[in-house]
Amino acid sequence: MAMQAPKGTKDVTPKESYKWQYIERLARELCEDFGFYETRTPVIEHTELFLRGVGDTTDIVQKEMYTFLDKGERSITLKPEGTAGAARMFLENGLFNDAQPTKMYYLYCPVFRYDKPQAGRLREHHQFGVEIYGAPRASADAECIRLAHTLLARAGVQGLSVRINSIGCPDCRPQYNDKLRAYLHSRYDGLCETCKSRFEKNPLRILDCKEDGCKAISAGAPTILDCLCGECEAHFAELKTCLTALDIPYEVDPFIVRGLDYYTKTVFEIVACGNAYNGTVCGGGRYDGLIEQLGGPKLCGTGFGMGMERLLLIAEQSGANIPEPKPVKVYIAALGDAPRAAGFRLADELRQSGIKTEFDHVGRSFKAQFKFADKLHARFVAILGEDELERGSVKLKNMGTGEELLLPLADLAQAVRAAGIQ
User: Fold this and answer.
1) Orientation of helix 17-34 relative to helix 138-154, angle to 10°
2) Residue 261, pLDDT score
3) Helix, strand, or coil here: 144?
4) Is 82 in contact with 113 (CB distance < 8 Å)?
5) Which phi and psi angles does 82 have, rounded to 5°?
6) Count of C-beta atoms within a 10 Å radius of residue 271
7) Which residue ranges form the domains of the chain, and what is each CATH number?
8) Tens digit of pLDDT for each residue in 66-107?
9) Cα 234 to Cα 138: distance, rounded to the nearest angstrom
10) Is the backbone peptide bond immediately before 323 cis, with ω within 30 degrees of 0?
């Protein structure tokens, strides 16, 4: 049997990686413009982090985490999402002692969830996300939404819409939970077994269930927007004001709750609706109690995460124009031991001068080297044989026009620039 990647994982080949790099470059440039700085956290974390942060009644913790005991009998989990690890890093490194807010992002962050693989959502996928700690105003939520919306638009995703909700805070959510339990009580038998286990401890999670029966029951449930306290109402009103100021159309969707227990107040999703794709491409919100829940000070947080695979998939399905890698500028075609040695040095000289250059490492004939240079779409081939080497020159052929120039061998990089090749 041939070796294969595990189910739910996918290789990124050299022919595809430029697409990832393009999106990553857009994300980095945007984060820099918005004043975010990169953070990198381990792929593995102690399992307790996700039990305390993500919540033990979520689908992620109950069904999807990759958890194992290491050789020291410690429970370790491959991180299933990015925020909990970023919060742990923020806390462990004492960043809460700095002047706030702290604005950071993570990119090409591998996350692992044991679930049925689907298009754009694998068991190992990668997230781009941002975090803001220490910014209590709803303008920080709106800034995250603007950044995510801008990235998706620049990546070429079509038909974007923003959906927002507030899920309250520890002060007003208990009242809603009581109201939701009262509604669900007569419909309890129609719930799936997982949601039955959530009924007492965390009924809000039932609204996030993907089972058809539970979704049908949840459709008629009371909304939390009728139970918000004054502070949460004011925060939600400010968010809407900020989005209007940014000219970002939005829709209030009272059934967005997100799949993680750390959310408070703002939750949002950005949805793409096009001919080839219809679904959520980004989700996030506010998590004002997460740092405190992990043992830190009372400090608010907000942010979002989006899957890179899904983003790339829908960008391509939307017809996004992802620029291909720049072709090779100069291919060094050398034949014979001495010309090969000289050609190898020339290739390095051109590269050190910032000129994209390739050199034959196979030992092809001149004819084969020209065919390979054509396959690489090289703009020029620098021909170096015994005669050229003896004269201290190199023949430069324009692969598009067939024109040939005889250039001095010394300081070839300067001669290449003088020919207008770079």
Assistant:
1) 150
2) 75
3) helix
4) no
5) -95, -25
6) 18
7) 17-170+238-317 (3.30.930.10), 173-227 (no CATH), 330-418 (3.40.50.800)
8) 999 999 999 999 999 999 999 999 999 999 999 999 999 999
9) 9
10) no
